Amino acid sequence: MLSPLYQVRVDSGIQEGSDISIYYDPMISKLVTYGDTRAEALQRMEAALDNYVIRGVTHNIPLLREIITHPRFISGDITTNFLPEEYPEGFKGHQLTSEGRRELVATAAALYVSAQLRSQRFLGNLRVSTTPRSRGSHTVAVSRSGSTFTVEVDGVKVEVSGEWNLASALLPVTINRTPRVLQCLSRDAGGDITLQYLGTQFKVRVVSQLVSTLSAHMPEKVPEDTSSILRSPMPGSVVAVSVKPGDVVAEGQEICVIEAMKMQNSLIAAKAAKVKSVHCKAGETVGEGDLLVQLE
User: Fold this and answer.
1) How many C-beta neighbours within 10 Å does residue 143 have?
2) Cβ(200)–Cβ(62) under 8 Å?
């Protein structure tokens, strides 16, 4: 039996210390797969993307995996308008079905229990919450037989088995007899786990029933008011700034223009307000998340 990564080629022109600048297309590599048929090549591409480990930079694996598994792409019914037609509001990651959510929750619970058992701690019922694309909370019960965990999620039993190598970047598992390759991007002692599942990153928190009950009494951190803060969505250079402190702007009015990847992006005000401060000027280079303009 051939490896799922047989007939896979990676072309890359970067090495440790290379600079991926804002002045050219920020390509890390090209991934090429082969097969006797289009379907076979796509299956290999799906497996290769699930096994492709990239750390430290933002990448487009979630979008690429979603595209190659889309029925229109599989059938070849695509044009250059594919992305705006299928994602008119922009691509927001893989949207979980009920079954997919159970698979994600069950795998996170099994991974958590595996780590706890390695630390010789006993666990009973767990509370699993997922964010941000699949926000919700689930009470699960976990039992183990060898390397197989049976996780009851929302009254449905999910079997998850694997080697559970906690030091590996890859997490090959079998979920209800279906092979999957996830990636554990981060995991901490508080039960916060970030998993790459079906190409998309999901943040999951797994805690005991007692911790879940006590957490209800903890104050929540107030999220940043993004309607009053304009941050750069990507690394780039500032082409123009259209406002100054004290200006009154209307909702949807252009605030500034950022150039990245040979394209100019107009950033607009999320609400009508007065400009409190401006933190950039034309010609400056900004990074992703940098504060550009603050509104009152």
Assistant:
1) 11
2) yes
Query: In whole angstroms, what is the distance from residue 96 CA to residue 256 CA?
Result: 35
Question: Which tokens is 231 given?
Answer: 């941050």
Distance CA 68, CA 48 (A): 12
Distance separating alpha carbons of residues 68 and 45, to the nearest angstrom: 8
- Put the strands of the sheet holding 229-231 in their side by side order: 229-231, 291-295, 273-278, 248-249
3-state secondary structure the chain: CCCCCCCEEEEECCCCCCCCCCCCCCCCEEEEECCCCHHHHHHHHHHHHHHCCCCCCCCCHHHHHHHHCCHHHHHCCCCCCHHHHHCCCCCCCCCCCHHHHHHHHHHHHHHHHHHHHHCCCCCCCEEEEEECCCCEEEEEEEEEECCEEEEEECCEEEEEEECCCCCCCEEEEEECCEEEEEEEEEECCCCEEEEEECCEEEEEEEEEHHHHHHHCCCCCCCCCCCCCEEECCCCEEEEEECCCCCCEECCCCEEEEEEECCEEEEEECCCCEEEEEECCCCCCEECCCCEEEEEC
Residue-wise pLDDT for 86-143, tens only, equals 999 889 999 999 999 999 999 999 999 988 887 765 445 666 666 544 467 888 999 9
pTM of the model: 0.76
Residue 28: phi and psi, rounded to 5, are -90, -45
6, amino acid identity: Y
Is-contact 258 236, C-beta < 8 A? yes
Distance CA 96, CA 48 (A): 21
CA distances from 212 to 38, 121, 151, 187, 215 (A): 48, 17, 18, 18, 5
Tokens for 151? 């996780």
Task: Return the structure tokens found at 272.
Answer: 């009508």
